[in-house]
Amino acid sequence: MPRLPSFLAACGLLLVSSFSLAAEAPLPQGQRYETDESWRQPVAPVRIADHTWQIGTAAITSLLVKTDAGAVLIDGGLTQASDMLLAHMRELGVEPGDLKLILHSHAHGDHVGPLAAIKRATGARLLTNAESAVLLTHGGTDDIHYGDGILYPPAQPDRLLQDGETVTLGTITFTVHFTPGHTPGSMSWTWTDTQDGKPTRIAYIDSLSAPGYQLIGNPRYPHIVDDFRRSFATVRDLPCDILITPHADLSGWDFTNTAHPHPSPISCRTLVDNAERKFDAQLSEQRKQNKP
């Protein structure tokens, strides 16, 4: 069985939950492709802020935000993570009917794989944008860069979002920021939580990488370079006291470390600087290769 291309692996102060790390077996491999074990390794929920929890796996982020009007899930990880996510929600006092909204970053199978199952189990409404809705409803088929290589159960959105739109549940308001490039529909999210009663601005920033992408003369994505440039600028200006990314290591998280889950925190600006340097080097190399 072929391994998931390495380019997906590039994509990726605090209170820790009191739950102990159980010696659980990794989640099963997907049927279409194989992934790193850390992407499938269950870990105990980690408290990010007073109302925000990480309930995903060791390396793939899935966030649960609890409000006085119900809960919000942001990203789900791989398709086979649905039962784990529901179990972690219950550990945190969130029954299936308490989940009201499902948000996401980009519509690749390592982040939205279980959303259809979570939606069926909870009745929560799935919010996305028009670009991501195409991939979600087709289960990842005909992806611009990966073709049919990363499939997942199709999910039907309930509402389409516009750039800069806000979504409020209870006392927490989420703002969506379109950050296209990694996919045309990539989205980042910001909201204000609290830590010890003090406001804390959280930024969940989508992948800013172009792993293996054709950046010059791409017929399926002719303005990909322009989109990346705009996204870099957008993320640099976001409120960002705590940075989280879909692939945890890219923002310095280690969800297996119960004592210090965020040993190497970085800022949104540093995240962008690192991503832009890699992007510029990749673009320069492709320009050299495309010279007549």
Distance between the termini: 39 Å
Radius of gyration: 18 Å
* Mean model confidence by pLDDT: 92
What's the number of extended β-strand segments? 12
Side by side, the strands of the main sheet go: 1-2-3-4-5-6-7
- Structural class by secondary-structure content: alpha/beta
* Largest sheet: number of strands, sense, barrel closure: 7 strands, mixed
Number of helices: 8
Shape: globular
What amount of the residues lies in strands? 15-25%
Residues in helix, %: 25-40%
Low-confidence residue ranges: 1-21
Instruction: Please write the string of helix (H) and strand (E) elements.
Output: HHEEEEHEHHEHEEEEEHEH
Set down the secondary structure blueprint:
Elements: H1 6-10, H2 37-40, E1 46-47, E2 52-54, E3 63-67, E4 70-74, H3 82-91, E5 99-103, H4 109-112, H5 115-122, E6 125-128, H6 130-137, E7 159-160, E8 166-169, E9 172-178, E10 187-195, E11 198-204, H7 224-236, E12 242-244, H8 268-289
Parallel strand pairs: 4-5, 5-6, 6-7, 11-12
Antiparallel strand pairs: 1-2, 2-3, 3-4, 8-9, 9-10, 10-11
What does this protein look like?
The structure is a single chain. The chain has 292 residues and is α/β, with parallel strands linked by helices. It is 25% helix and 19% strand. The chain contains eight helices and twelve strands. A hairpin with a 4-residue loop joins strand 1 (46-47) and strand 2 (52-54). The longest helix has 22 residues, at 268-289. The chain starts with 5 loop residues before the first helix and ends with a helix. Mean pLDDT is 92; it is low at 1-21.
